[in-house]
Structure to design on (101 residues):
């Protein structure tokens, strides 16, 4: 079942550019990762330290395998270090429905 993942990140003031740069460097591999069909990141227009990442995955299990991969390769830790709080930011996983026929 295809899922959409929405993750919100609140960076320490001034760290958003570095967060985005890391994402730009790792997203090419992410896009080739088994089950990934889309990933991007957007910054809030009024608060540039607030970022939203949107991802489409073949299943929740594919996404969880990807998170395990990013934990093992150290990039998840690098990103978390740039956030306001060391705890994980809110992440939501939604089942996708196609409304276009």
């Amino acid at each position: 079942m295809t899922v959409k993942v929405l993750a919100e990140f609140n960076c320490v003031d001034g760290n958003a550019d570095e967060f985005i740069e890391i994402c730009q460097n790792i997203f090419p591999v992410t896009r080739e990762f088994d089950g990934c069909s889309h990933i991007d990141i957007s910054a809030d227009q009024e608060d540039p330290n607030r970022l939203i990442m949107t991802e489409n995955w073949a299943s929740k299990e594919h996404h969880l395998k990807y998170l395990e991969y990013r934990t093992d390769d150290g990039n998840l830790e690098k990103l978390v270090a740039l956030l306001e709080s060391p705890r994980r930011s809110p992440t939501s996983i939604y089942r996708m429905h196609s409304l276009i026929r």
In short: Residues 24 and 40 are 9 Å apart (CA to CA). The helical segments are 16-32, 60-72, 75-80.
